[in-house]
Amino acid sequence: xxxxxxxxxxxxxxxxxxxxxxxxxxLTAPKDDSVSQVIVSGNIxxxxxxxxxxxFECTGGDVYKAKYVPSVVGRHCLTVNYCGMPCxxxxxxxLVAPLGELKTTLVGGPKFSNPHDIVEVDNDFIIANKGNHExxxxxxxxxxxNKFITPTLSHSQTFEPYAVAVQEDMIVVSDLExxxxxxxxxxxxxxxxxxxxxxxxxxxxxVDEDKKxxxxxxxxxxxxxxxADGHLIKTIGWEGSKPGELLKPWFMAFNSKxxxxxxxxxxxxxxxxxxxxxxxxxxxxxxxxxxxxxVRGLAIDKHDVIYITAITNTKRPFKKTExxxxxxxxxxxxxxxxxxxxYPRNIRVMEEDGESLAYVVDGAHHRIMVYKL
Length: 373
Description:
Elements: H1 2-7, E1 10-12, E2 23-28, E3 40-46, E4 50-55, E5 57-60, E6 63-68, E7 74-82, E8 85-86, E9 92-96, E10 101-106, E11 115-121, E12 124-129, E13 134-138, E14 144-148, E15 161-167, E16 170-175, E17 180-184, E18 190-194, E19 202-207, E20 213-217, E21 222-226, E22 232-236, E23 249-254, E24 260-264, E25 269-273, E26 280-285, E27 287-288, E28 291-300, E29 306-312, E30 322-327, E31 333-337, E32 344-352, E33 355-362, E34 367-372
Antiparallel strand pairs: 1-2, 2-6, 3-4, 3-7, 5-6, 7-8, 7-9, 10-34, 11-12, 12-13, 13-14, 15-16, 16-17, 17-18, 19-20, 20-21, 21-22, 23-24, 24-25, 25-26, 27-28, 28-29, 29-30, 30-31, 32-33, 33-34
């Protein structure tokens, strides 16, 4: 019996479905007169360690089939047993891609101007509306509720809000033109100005649980880390292309292990750092159709799936692709979605009414596109 079980295999209609796409699993039982009753069973372990049993039915003769519809993006582990023994190709990994169905488009009221970032707070959005030199607060439809224009340092400079991060009662905004990060309270009262002596072109920002402020600098090709009082405590990375080095980093986020994941834009890759030591943990290239992709926006969902916005690293316009992409934390490509972007900026993943949604900031088209994942 053991010899027979080792030769039994099952087939999947696809091992790279999208969410909501049905996967059919088929097993043909081998002829074995010593088996009085054929029992085929299986289960799927989805991201988040949720295990779901799948039921096989005999569809005629020796053929057994089961169906599975994934609802979560990421790695799904499929295990199938034949008469109590694992099949020879069990377990099998199924890499589930985002559905990527456009749900709605936010254009603002009044219209957005070159937006760069969006953050959810309570039931509202905070948006870095860079083209109008302001940070705006909108409702879920993108209509204006409030806006904030921070005084500049000189008449020759304008407020250039690039990225926003929120941690409890702290709101942090990077100001590209003025080489600083501004810390506000929830009432949008500026509390302090951070990093003007240590920053040159601040881009993405992130705040950890201890309220340390991580600031990517596109000109200095590094991440500067400040304590809550605004004191520089360390620098992560430096200019270069080796692991641990950066070249014009853009947005970044923390995963569930409290590691810092960085969009290493001009190196066309994603890098993961130990946020405490600053040491690189992992890095992987981002490519599409054989072309390197400049990584721009970056978000991480609750299962550590990495979502990015990217543009083909080429000077040939007819070869240029602008899209959103998804990867596992191990660097496995899951899929792409979105089209007709014009210089996309950041991307955020949010949960709303039981759905996972990706908000893609389509900067030069002055809009934010919302996709079902």
